[in-house]
Amino acid sequence: MKENIKQYEGFDREFGSNIFWCRKCNIPLLDEQCGICHEKGFRIELTQPGDVRFSSPYEKKIIGELILKSFGINPLAGKLVLLNKTPGEDKTDEIIVDGLVFGILRFDMKELGFKFDLMMEGAKALQDFGLKKKLVKISASGRHLSGKTIDGSEILECSDDIGKGDTILIASKNLSGFGISFSDSNEMKNPGRSIRVKKIDSGKAAFLSGHPGLDEVIRANASHMKRLAKDAVNTIRGIANQKEFMDSPVYVSFSGGKDSLTTLDLTRSAVKRQIKVFFANTGIEFPETVEFARRFCKKNNIELIEVEAKEAFWENLPSFGPPAKDFRWCCKVCKLAPINIVIEECTRGGHKCLTIDGKRKYESFARARIAPKEENPFIPGQVSVFPIRNWRAIEVWLYIYYRKLEYNPLYDFGFERVGCWLCPAELSAEYYRFKELHPELFKRWNEYLLKWAGEHELGDKFIEHGFWRWKHLPPKMVRLAEDLGISTAIKGREEEFSIVVTGGVSPCRTGGYTMEGKITGLTLDKAQNIANMLGENVFSEDLGVLLIRQKGSSVKIFSSGHISVNALGREEARSLFENTSKQLIRVKKCTKCGVCLKVCPAGAITIEPGLKIGKECIRCGKCTESCVVAKYFDRILPGFGD
User: What pLDDT, on a 0 to 100 scale, did the predictor assign at position 614?
Assistant: First the structure.
């Protein structure tokens, strides 16, 4: 979990957020002052980045069942429950109720099921509630008890429902907290260690009275939401009314999810001219998503441009194997390529394609610095505007509830995001929820994965616990594999490195000349290591593409292995393709001789653990001239360019 927390270091200072809670109305507040009683709320300290949301009916049901199983009651019944996504192995959410961080809902990757972890405020609230179950009273006192093990001789009394390994409530004089039992109720007072105190102190926490509904939450936050919506509408209107966009329709990127739904509704309020909607039907979308996108647009008389990839995923699967978080070839094949064709038509004649997009900075660390407006470096001519980039999930949902917008039913079934049903970025918790909803679709994909695993001498557990979702496992998954005793070594000969030309130099519809090829045996992260040698570069994790730009030319390398070079002239395109190939083979076949280190005047090169060119590179070419691998690249790749 440490590596997940580390990625958010500094994020909370610049982007993180908290919410407030009105004790009088028992309502979450997005500003400090309540819009109903006008009293100030108290601040809730959330784990950052603080993208809090309302619990779905399915999630609330799971939480209630787990608390009932542990403590025999469900004090959250009928209450408003919020969830806040936090770092963890898989789905991990703080549970906020009555302004208390009550506990943690997490999906256990070992047992492949949901678990409930009690938090300090939850333990205190349960004791204040009068709960006598799973309760242990001890004679020891003092804050130093947190983290300590208590002997049976120090236990004054305990309830008779405690089992070994249970989460328990602990009370001592004026202190209260929670811990874990090492013994059952019958053995609790025997000599030897009996319980471990997780945390205990003299603080107080209690449930609040009142059971407000969504209408009251909307009223309490009305001024905040009106201001937020007004700013978003003004952003869209201001850019859409610029001269370069006035003569063309306004396009909205619509995924069928909550963020794009909100963005679409805001756009309809902002502009009065024609609005068209892009919907990328990848062929592996949830049936609910496809049905919702079509129904919503038809019902609201919105022109829907449904870009269908049809069987593209399944047709390319034998060549590429299962996609992964760090190998998203499917995005290029099923999304980027089809949409690029449509946008090329929209931008023909030098027109710009203005697209309103629902990306938010809280969705991922990689999206934390979204600008209000960006020219898409991967699709020439497309200008994207992100009007809700600063919105939190709870603000998106309040807007949807206030506007009474129909939304994708998958959210009520427990999905936090709605993408492709087999997406490797999907949480395992959602993947197994998908299994319950669509067993036939799950069966098709799971049978393929099991067959693929068998071909690479991997066991069924490798698939069951989700290791297929990475090409290179992160530390958390390496540890999980070790704990479960699962081998993650993919057997078989490593794919040979090669670059072949799949399309000779030809005129490009967007200008200049292109040359295309196919790379095998080289991952995109390795290509990134050499990108600074070729030009300014940017990487899109969502699309799985690395873009390298020089003056008047560009190189695109996709996680699928596809490479596309564009330059002003025929010879320039050929030369750039050749130079790119040299650099890629350098990073793949580096002998670590160290000659390049000596000739680099900028000190931009490192060779441990592998060759990497830093941003200090001045592109003088001296390292390439001195590299034996680059010098003989045509011999290393026989038939290159044929």
Answer: 93
Cα–Cα distance, 100 to 125 (Å, whole number): 9
Tell me if 432 sits within 8 A of 465, measured CB to CB: no
Which residues are CB-neighbours of 479 under 8 A, at least 6 positions away?
A: none
CA 70 to centroid of chain Cα atoms: 31
CA distance 442 to 430: 12
Q: Are 423 and 469 in contact (CB under 8 A)?
A: no
Q: How confident is the model at residue 639 (pLDDT cuts 50, 70, 90)?
A: very low
Q: Under 8 Å CB-to-CB from 509, ≥6 apart: which residues? A: 344, 348
Estimate the crossing angle of helix 258-270 against helix 222-240, to 10 degrees.
Answer: 70
Measured CA distances, 156 to 71, 120, 146, 159, 170 (Å): 20, 22, 18, 11, 11
Cβ neighbours around 188 below 10 Å, total: 21
Please calculate the CA angle 361-394-105 and round it to the nearest 5 degrees.
Answer: 95
Measured between alpha carbons, how far is residue 117 from residues 67, 78, 95 in Å? Answer: 9, 21, 10
Residue type, 228: L
Amino acid at 419: G
Q: Where in the chain is the domain with CATH 3.30.310.10?
A: 498-636
Query: What pLDDT score was predicted for residue 53?
Result: 97
Output the six-digit token pair for 621.
């070419």
Candidates 392, 361, 59; CA nearest to 258 is 392
* 73 and 133 Cβ atoms separated by less than 8 Å: yes
Q: What superfamily would CATH give domain 498-636? A: TATA-Binding Protein (3.30.310.10)
Average model confidence (pLDDT) for the chain? 89
Q: CATH 3.40.50.620 occupies which residues in the chain?
A: 221-437
Q: Are 534 and 623 in contact (CB under 8 A)?
A: no
Check: CB of residue 394 under 8 Å from CB of residue 416: no
Specify the DSSP class assigned to residue 409: G
Question: pLDDT digits over 278-298, tens only?
Answer: 999 999 999 999 999 999 999
Cα–Cα distance between 22 and 34 in angstroms, integer? Answer: 6
How much is the pTM?
0.82
Q: Are 84 and 47 in contact (CB under 8 A)?
A: yes
The residue type of 199 is K
Across residues 560-586, what is the average pLDDT? 90
Which range (105-109, 445-449, 623-627, 629-633) has the least confidence? 629-633
Q: Which CATH class is domain 221-437?
A: alpha beta
347 φ, ψ (degrees, to nearest 5):
-100, 5
Alpha carbons 175 and 494: distance in angstroms, whole number = 60
In whole angstroms, give the CA distance from residue 611 to residue 590.
Answer: 7
Q: What is the pLDDT of residue 533?
A: 92
Maximum pairwise Cα distance, the chain: 87
User: Is residue 95 predicted with pLDDT exceeding 60?
Assistant: yes
Using CA atoms, how far apart are residues 250 and 240, in angstroms rounded to an integer?
7
Q: How many CA within 13 A on the CB side of residue 495? A: 14
Tell me the residue type at 386: F
> In whole angstroms, how far apart are CA 358 and each of 146, 175, 277, 487, 607?
45, 47, 12, 40, 40
Residue predicted with more confidence, 174 or 123: 123
Cβ–Cβ < 8 Å for 362, 386: no
Phi, psi of 116 (to 5 degrees): -115, 125
